[in-house]
User: Fold chorismate synthase from Aegilops tauschii subsp. strangulata.
Amino acid sequence: MESLMEAVLAALSVVVHPESHSRRKTCKETLIEGRPGQSRITTPRKETDTCKILSGTYEGMTTGTPIHVLVPNTDQRGGDYTEMAKAYRPSHADLTYDLKYGVRSVQGGGRSSARETIGRVAAGAVAKKILKLKCGVEILAFVSKVHQVVLPEDAVDYEALTLDQIESNICRCPDPEYAQKMIDAIDKVRINGNSIGGVVTCIARNVPRGLGSPVFDKLEALLAKAMLSLPASKGFEIGSGFAGTDLTGSEHNDEFYMDEAGNVRTRTNRSGGVQGGISNGETIYFKVAFKPTATIGKKQNTVTRDHEDIELLTRGRHDPCVVPRAVPMVETMAALVLMDQLMAHVAQCEMFPLNLALQEPIGSTNSTPALA
Amino acid sequence: MESLMEAVLAALSVVVHPESHSRRKTCKETLIEGRPGQSRITTPRKETDTCKILSGTYEGMTTGTPIHVLVPNTDQRGGDYTEMAKAYRPSHADLTYDLKYGVRSVQGGGRSSARETIGRVAAGAVAKKILKLKCGVEILAFVSKVHQVVLPEDAVDYEALTLDQIESNICRCPDPEYAQKMIDAIDKVRINGNSIGGVVTCIARNVPRGLGSPVFDKLEALLAKAMLSLPASKGFEIGSGFAGTDLTGSEHNDEFYMDEAGNVRTRTNRSGGVQGGISNGETIYFKVAFKPTATIGKKQNTVTRDHEDIELLTRGRHDPCVVPRAVPMVETMAALVLMDQLMAHVAQCEMFPLNLALQEPIGSTNSTPALA
Amino acid sequence: MESLMEAVLAALSVVVHPESHSRRKTCKETLIEGRPGQSRITTPRKETDTCKILSGTYEGMTTGTPIHVLVPNTDQRGGDYTEMAKAYRPSHADLTYDLKYGVRSVQGGGRSSARETIGRVAAGAVAKKILKLKCGVEILAFVSKVHQVVLPEDAVDYEALTLDQIESNICRCPDPEYAQKMIDAIDKVRINGNSIGGVVTCIARNVPRGLGSPVFDKLEALLAKAMLSLPASKGFEIGSGFAGTDLTGSEHNDEFYMDEAGNVRTRTNRSGGVQGGISNGETIYFKVAFKPTATIGKKQNTVTRDHEDIELLTRGRHDPCVVPRAVPMVETMAALVLMDQLMAHVAQCEMFPLNLALQEPIGSTNSTPALA
Amino acid sequence: MESLMEAVLAALSVVVHPESHSRRKTCKETLIEGRPGQSRITTPRKETDTCKILSGTYEGMTTGTPIHVLVPNTDQRGGDYTEMAKAYRPSHADLTYDLKYGVRSVQGGGRSSARETIGRVAAGAVAKKILKLKCGVEILAFVSKVHQVVLPEDAVDYEALTLDQIESNICRCPDPEYAQKMIDAIDKVRINGNSIGGVVTCIARNVPRGLGSPVFDKLEALLAKAMLSLPASKGFEIGSGFAGTDLTGSEHNDEFYMDEAGNVRTRTNRSGGVQGGISNGETIYFKVAFKPTATIGKKQNTVTRDHEDIELLTRGRHDPCVVPRAVPMVETMAALVLMDQLMAHVAQCEMFPLNLALQEPIGSTNSTPALA
Assistant:
């Protein structure tokens, strides 16, 4: 059996090899996130370092100790960043870090670089694996919008979608036709030094019923926080989201019925798998908006650290569109939230179930209706 | 000087008296949130109870002790809820609470009732007051969409908007013409037992620069969690949000310039006042989507607690549109997030400022550019 | 079956009726903690109020909602406190609260009154009940020292001790002879307006193996924090404690052996049931030191709030010795710590046990060796 | 000015070079904690690795990013641990880790090794520095008991004690005569393969008034947790501690008076600098008991992982007495607790002081009475 340790390494390879058309590489191939040349639609940096597990595993097993994964950044070139040290790049964190701390790490952007998400992805790999083994949870994200190319809602069947469909192209859009349109859109801005953003849709199938909390820690609240903590994200919506406000209550409500397996189900799923902050067993789905990358190859007005107005032309590499690379990050954050809530649920509700006719133990057959 | 204690009471009156055209009633008039007959567009419940401060204040001052505000619900009628005890109301928390706990409080919905937000509003009142006194922060929310009536983006000047404009009508939309259209839309569904949702926009002016954190606790992440923890909310977007994905980087970036007061400012504000998870001193603005109220006066298919398919017709009162009532809740949650981050910032960054040319002490003149 | 709700009420009666020689009164008899005249060795205050459960239960069952227990303090007399408002009582929290907050609640001491522990006891009652039902955990505390009267170590058999033995006298010392000596010591200081302190010993039998964490949240660390959070406590020691430093390693080590039931046990228990921060299945035992009550009926030098030196003679009631009343508080805090750790353990370690030969599921027969 | 970064490195050298008679080595000399041959009274391991700062600093300044200090353990020899992998060492964490996790890291003990404290010491160095610069706080710990050698209470003047006195000998006892007795005691057990424990006393001078919280997070509770989280610790007492129970209230109370600088002070300090959970400006002092090291060079009865009774003779290095090495750990944990509470205090109480006659701003002259 593949160990959890390998899962970590395997997951790291996901982010690194988007072009490989498979996220299931062996752990020998793992390289760092933010790695360059992953495809022509992303940055041309050369970051060839490998990750090392420094603690937390023993003979291929996790030991309960925090797992320390070290990913050195060997492609960091101080010289590249001279300009940045002086001028605040528009819509970057440069100014706000200076305002908060009075100092910042110029090389590589420090924590404001999307590189920091590699640590999340490593942890998410473990979470995904446990969720899958324990309850059959499947978390899949994909690109559903790039700039003005919008994947139609009905182009993807949330119950049948596979990882292979998503990874069949470098844009991580499961529909080949729209994937090509998106790649074309990215190529277009790449050539002229501009950038674009888009939307990632994420689904989670077979999530156990009962995850989440009634008040502050509603499942959708935790997911919203997790997604807005990702670099460049500007919006989150679950289920019907903003579009749901166009409907009336009678159009929007999800009617209940008993399915053949004896489970309470909903005919529609505008709730997005969550009602009152708690999962109801239907597929969870939500969308995350990512703004166009702030770093562009065009001249912009800005000010220096010394408060002088200047013009800035950022030289060197930049990402024309981060959205394909955001896909595994979105999956990761969803996995971490669900794993936390699974643990909380087991601790709070499984020691003394009050009504077994209503409460299905985690991992039982009934709790995974969508698998049938 | 008005005490913090009075602020709590005064704030409670906000939620209670939306029809009063003023949120600044004396503390004698405070009544409970969710109170009935507050206007014809909301529920006809009679909840006439007053709130009591049971601990935490002494001679009109808070003492540092937790403030205990008790708001008894005297209009709770067990009889009204007989049907609910049996049948799961579509798109309510009934089912999910049973799945999680195996038991639920049927009367009044327990924690799944929006009534629970009154406790938040009480705390938010204190937070708002401190934010205002310390840094001049002004938090204002308003209804920007009801069903398919959309307030145009340019109808509201975020820098000039006043509380009076918002409270000038029972819909809490600052534009009288659109307010009327929204009220008409609500009246229409109210009459036929249906419901509608909408969008609340919130702005926060004069937020000190430097609030928030670089990674997991980005300011926008905390706001997103806070908003999605509100009952019936389905979406959150900050700054340009989902619409920002239609732009290119060169269109979207907020260029910096030096203003006359010597502050670094941005020409545009698509970032929504937050860059890299940290406030930049520009006005923070975001939107929250609220679904149509789940309780409607129409027959719906559902199942009982005993797993029988049945038809349900919920009798009695219901809210045709919660969006106007959500306005103070959105303000409250924004205030609580900003207050927490203000405290964290003071603790983390004000004891040893490293670079006073860049870091403005909280409460100094420079940190509130928009006030000038 | 007795409901959890009743457990709360029953527990409240513990603290209230120490003279009743039984902690298992019906819930009808529950009164408030800190109640007066509970015996001649405690304070002569009249606090006759009953507690009310305001939320969190439904038809005798907890609903998952926070349980709100209100215990009004009707014996609060402002007049009694005039002096305190001016003068800082030596070794009280009066000065430090003023230093921290600039204001304090003079009547009844606010949060510095031991009355605040009633809320803990209510929660602890629920925790104790769950621990008992789930794993057979028994938590018993008793007075082992009052002033210079020291109960000999071998006077109590930790494995055989019963609640009845402890509650057989108003001093809550299970040995009648030493109990009488302690009561005599308290009577002596009571008469001359002085006070004394002492030590409470607490044992927890049948604690599941594996509770606690390896580093910061060691089980003994959590217990130490819980105990030092009790009013008037000044010290904590687990297992051999301070006296263990008189031994060599070969004298102190607890050798392992296999018992007849096939469990790994220790011949001695100087570890106090915890090794490396994690419970090992042996009886947990620890001691807590409580200083002599600060309020005494003797003239003392002190200063006023206005920084004048004065003499203070505190009139009115005071406790000559809080130690007997601290017994249920110590049990309560132990129960809360163990309950928290039980929940954490179930969440962290029971979903995917790696080695069932070593890890005993919570609630299984083997995990409660001492019960046999 | 010495940077915070250097402080980290300098602090690491403290733990490493106890024989050097100075804790203020340059950062070039920093080596790892738990390093061998530090003196004849500790373990003969050879751990010569240096620590590296991998992130969190930029041009000698901290950047606000977490500081990553890596200390590789190059002296780890799998072969040494073969026996441990099979047999549970008495009074070690071997058994309990297996009970909890079903797996453990045998080499070097994993997290159950005292080596983990090096991470704490690194963080504590930063905390100590900030406390010193901001408020003049001085934290000093020393050995006050080794086995049955007890340093008399009056041998150390808490107000005059210096670091040099403590570091004047390898036992870290400020009294040369008693230090020699302690060293003799350690030498004696070292020769015959046995071990002994002892007590560390810690003082904190010039702690600002007002740190701590009234209920669960009392300052003494946080200190107790911090100390009991250290490996091998079994007890904690603050101020008069367990011995204080021998006194009456009139003997124990600390009377207040006005000092010449206009500060409220106490004549005695049995409270140990904390009243009602909050610091009062007097010197904080507390004691921590450490049991004799569990690893000894003598044959002991135990059981194997496969549940066989066997005799174990642990070969190789071991520490005859950890108490001198615990001294910087105790200081470290005290610094971390005080730093946390300082930050909390600034956030909670310094934004809106209610009564400036009572509340002294952190860092003001008056708040450090003992410095005069």
Q: What stands out?
A: The interface with chain C takes residues 61, 64-65, 130, 133-134, 214, 342-344, 346-348, 350-352, 354, 362 of chain A (CB under 8 Å).
